[in-house]
Amino acid sequence: MPAAAQWRDEGSARHARCIAQVRSNPKEGLERAQLWRIEGGGWAADHCIAIALYELKDFRGAAQRFEALAAAMADAPASQRAGTLDQAGQSWLAADEPARAEPDFDAALALQADDPDLLIDRAEALAAQQRYAPAIKDLDRAIVLAPDRADAYIYRGSAYRSLAALDRALDDVEHGLKLQPTSVLGLLERGNIRRLKGDAAGARQDWRRVAELAPDTAAAAAAKVNLDRLNSPDEKP
User: Which CATH architecture has domain 35-147?
Assistant: First the structure.
């Protein structure tokens, strides 16, 4: 979950303290945010409650709370509303419901059309629905707006891999890794592409590097699965 949008109201200082509490102790933070809401904390308290739900892994509850808050924020600055909608979409992605995330990203982009973060997030939702061509279109635009974003190149490379355009996929991921050499996402993806191109040694090197850089993570677990398959006697050379 990215940092919350800047809250320009009289509760902004308390909002910052609330978010800090939620990050360190989500359960206690939720209780304090709910009390603040009863005391008249308004949008800022509601936003803190939504963040707490996300931290507690109630992703659907968080998404619904963010959506309700964004709907109530008609008079708020566009950037604040867009940020809240983006958090709703990211919550739906965390809940593995990309189809419900997409409309939130659409609404956020209607408020801030040239925000590369929003474009990348929507591309993730589109790719999760196997809609790779529109995902690539969003990533193309994000790269124009932010040419130094390694993640945009890596995500686009992943989309190209899914379309079996392996040379274009590798070019994108290689560029992303030049921008961010220790990107675990990039190394994991390059290993996938290298394996598909028949470079088992290169794939093995990338996946081992993922395990070194990010042990005990989902990426490391995925790398281990890939390495086990690569080392299987049934694996084709």
Answer: Alpha Horseshoe (1.25)
